[in-house]
Design brief:
11 strands; elongated
Length: 319
Amino acid sequence: MSFADPLVLLGLLAVPLLVRWYAGQQRRRARAASAFVAPALTASVAPRRPRWRRHVPMLAFVLALAVLIGAAARPQRSVAKPVTDGAVMLADDISSSMQATDIAPSRLRAAQRAARRFLESVPSTVQVGLLEFARTPTVLQSPTTDHGLTEAALAEPLRTSGGTAIGEAILTATQEIRSVPRVAGKRPPGAIVLISDGASNVGIGPLAAAREAGAQHIPIYTISVGTPNGTIPIKQGSRTVTVPVPVSRQQLAQIASASGGRAFTASDASGVSAAYTHLAARLGHKQVKQEITASFAGGGLVLLLLGSALSLRWFGRLV
């Protein structure tokens, strides 16, 4: 919860002063009673004293004051509302290491299947595009609300190759999102979903590209897919050797952090799907501030009425 006018909360400093004043009043009242009646005669002069009931109305008044001061500060809470516009670029790593089968049926196929589930979950009003990258990025589909086109691009035969140009992929995805037509003079919010299994080793630095995307208010959500035990077969002359391709998560986490996004890790096919499902929900909604002043004001008035009613019932006066 936050407040639109937080300086008004300085009025809460008056609450402990009011409590201190009330406590002083009670002490003076007790001293006056002691001076008027001898302690031995108190039970016969005032056999029924209100004790704790005496303080309940004032407690309600003090709480009401605190709540009403909070209402004057215009409290707000964040609520999730469906996104009615937006653009997302899916950036899929198709480097040779994505052929590893430590995630069934392979890192690449698991990513493809999860991306299809993402398309099914994200609102139809969100534009989704697709690019693939190894040594260079290739845009297969620019952002569009026709998710069938993006799904068809995902179904295209994939040809893996060496090299991982993550920085180039980020720049290309950023350019695609920035080219989305403006709505009412404003560019729709954008995001990049980047899935890969390793660190960038070709092209420009990925962290510089991530910071540029962040400067354009385009967060990057990374999904590192794979395990430390991944391997792929590589032909060397007439024989085939097995080469280890362990997943490298550190750089992907740095990319997400530098852009204002979030990093996910997936060590099996269900983890990849869960990451995409989470992102579909996250990118399909946005957090907006909703003012709840009326609720605070209503609570303060209820406390005032409660304190007044108890004071009238028990003591025949308001205070």
